Amino acid sequence: MTTSDPDESDGTTASTSPDPGGFAEARTQPTTREDTSGARSVVESRDLAVYYGEEQALQPTSMEIPEHQVTAIIGPSGCGKSTFLRSINRMNDLIDVARVEGELLFRGKNVYDQDVDSVALRRRIGMVFQKPNPFPKSIRDNVAYGLKVQGEEVTDEKIERALKHAALWEEVKDKLDSSGLDLSGGQQQRLCIARAIAPDPEVILMDEPASALDPVATSKIEDLIEDLARDYTVVIVTHNMQQAARISDKTAVFLTGGELVEFGDTNKVFENPENQQVEDYITGKFG
């Protein structure tokens, strides 16, 4: 995204008041990630296909994404990973030639129904982009923006909570009025995460959030993602298969042509894949 305020529609909120987007069901209480059995799905695609003009970027895809878990999406460049991710909160709506077929359910409702407010949807499903994109504002104002854009009251408590959730509070608590641009790359990305979670969304989408970071900063982001799954459902696109294996509970593998070829428990996908193409990709025989 290249707009000056790239997260204007990213921050999302999970209010208990009636939701204008039509998603009435509230999320469950956080669970321990060690017990992932019986987790219900919060997002489900049913034969979801995406086209850019006449080009089909995503073949009909059916998948259930479980609540309070990390779902990784992997595959070679151009395989439809980011297209699928952006379909979840209708970010593809911002592309004039994009067209969607099939269904994408959030809390049991198709997000592409005519009565769905896409802005309300993005209050519930936030997004973090590949490149850190803090605004040229103070650290405090960067986090506050995530609240203001959703019409929420800005309080010191909410800002502190978001920064703590993003594992950044201890590093910036004495310089909240300093520019977010003065932070390191890894800190900037965690600031963007704090901005996205400030309104308390239910789902956080991450499009290669550590690809532009050094190994130390990447490790901090990975630790943070695992912590976030206690309170949120996380869906992450990554080119780093080792990263997917480390941090995710479920893994989806897309291959060339926008086809989902395997989806399941991460350990099984990496250690005993059902599809030979997946095994070849994971072992580096192609991709």
Automatic annotation (TrEMBL):
Q: Which domain of life is it from?
A: Archaea
Q: Which residues form the ABC transporter domain?
A: 43-282
What SUPFAM superfamilies is this protein classified in? Answer: P-loop containing nucleoside triphosphate hydrolases
Q: Where is this region: Disordered?
A: 1-40
Q: Which GO terms describe its biological process?
A: phosphate ion transmembrane transport
- Gene Ontology CC entries for this record: membrane
Protein's UniProt keywords contain Cytoplasm: no
Q: Which GO terms describe its molecular function?
A: ATP binding; ATP hydrolysis activity; phosphate transmembrane transporter activity
Gene3D superfamilies per the UniProt record, alphabetical: P-loop containing nucleotide triphosphate hydrolases (3.40.50.300)
List, alphabetically, the PROSITE patterns matched.
ABC_TRANSPORTER_1, ABC_TRANSPORTER_2
Tell me the keywords, alphabetical order: ATP-binding, Cell membrane, Membrane, Nucleotide-binding, Transport
Q: Which Pfam families match?
A: ABC_tran
Q: Where is the composition biased (Acidic residues)?
A: 1-10
Q: Any idea what this protein is called?
A: Phosphate ABC transporter ATP-binding protein
Q: Which organism is it from?
A: Halalkalicoccus jeotgali (strain DSM 18796 / CECT 7217 / JCM 14584 / KCTC 4019 / B3)
Its lineage reads:
Archaea, Methanobacteriati, Methanobacteriota, Stenosarchaea group, Halobacteria
